[in-house]
């Protein structure tokens, strides 16, 4: 490793420690342009670019990231595949995410990013395989951070399937201030809204069917009172459904209609 790369790595480590995002990204990009950069340096540079959650700056570094990754030897490329997935996830480039996603994740973050990539591509068989891996990883995962990430990953899968109760079971296991706590709160609210919408729409449809095909044996002793109750319930549900739909529109990608 050249002396210049060594100094850049020291500078980058210092900027990261001091919490200086722009300086970190500039230095990381300069590192990536060195043809002699090894796997360790590449991994640190990608971490610096992704960790600050500045997608515009990360997109500008995309050509340098891809060129530096292409220069790595095959062994380093395989070891750093999950870092490339992190990078493409940070800039929301679906093609890149799908290219680096895997059904055998390296760690919890790799599992989450792969799950998101497969769900976005509607590749449900591979998403299911990632979910199965999450279950195995949770059985032997002492780190609370990674546990929270895996629970959220499983919740994403169940939510995509419309299995909201299973999703909520996973989100309830994420406690403040663990990662994805805010996602868990938002997801749980979306789950409740989705289930309420489904029930209210089903009830309205059922009442419409009932009024069309009256069954005298199921009538109450006072038919007029029964009609009034149905009308009142329809009115209540008719008022609730639009409100629920408005809440659902706040996150259209998460809550099915």
Q: Which regions have little confidence, pLDDT < 50, spanning 5+ residues?
A: 252-257
Radius of gyration: 25 Å
How does the major sheet shape up? none
Q: Note the total helix count.
A: 14
Task: Give the helix level as a range of percent.
Answer: over 70%
Order of helices and strands: HHHHHHHHHHHHHH
What oligomeric state is this? single chain
Query: Outline, from the CA principal axes?
Result: elongated
Number of strands: 0
Measured distance between first and last alpha carbons: 55 Å
Going by helix content, strand content and strand pairing, the class is: mainly alpha
Q: Give the mean pLDDT.
A: 85
- Strand coverage percent: under 5%
What does it look like?
By secondary structure, the protein is an all-alpha fold. The chain has a domain at 1-100. It contains 14 helices and no strands. Helix 9 (108-120) packs parallel to helix 11 (144-160) and helix 11 runs parallel beside helix 13 (181-212). The longest helix is centred in the C-terminal third of the chain and has 32 residues, at 181-212. Residues 252-257 have low confidence and may be disordered.
């Amino acid at each position: 490793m050249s002396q210049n790369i060594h100094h850049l790595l020291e500078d980058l480590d210092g900027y990261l420690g001091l919490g200086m995002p722009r300086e970190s990204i500039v230095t990381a990009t300069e590192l990536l342009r060195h043809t002699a950069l090894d796997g360790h340096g590449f991994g640190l540079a990608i971490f610096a670019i992704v960790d600050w959650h500045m997608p515009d700056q990360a997109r500008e570094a995309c050509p340098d990231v891809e060129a530096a990754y292409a220069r790595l030897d095959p062994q380093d490329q395989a070891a750093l595949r999950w870092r490339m997935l992190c990078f493409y996830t940070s800039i929301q480039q679906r093609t890149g995410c799908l290219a680096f996603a895997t059904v055998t994740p390296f760690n919890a973050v790799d599992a989450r990013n792969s799950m998101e990539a497969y769900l976005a591509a509607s590749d449900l068989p591979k998403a299911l395989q990632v979910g199965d891996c999450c279950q195995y990883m949770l059985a032997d995962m002492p780190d609370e951070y990674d546990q929270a990430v895996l629970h959220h990953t499983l919740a994403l899968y169940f939510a995509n399937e419309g299995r909201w109760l299973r999703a909520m079971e996973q989100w309830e296991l994420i406690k403040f201030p663990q990662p994805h706590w805010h996602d868990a709160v938002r997801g749980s609210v979306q789950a409740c809204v989705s289930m309420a919408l489904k029930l209210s729409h089903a009830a309205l449809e059922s009442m419409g069917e009932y009024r069309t095909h009256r069954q005298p044996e199921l009538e109450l002793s006072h038919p007029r009172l029964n009609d009034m109750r149905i009308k009142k319930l329809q009115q209540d549900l008719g008022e609730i459904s639009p409100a629920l739909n408005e809440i659902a529109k706040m996150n259209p990608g998460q809550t099915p209609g």
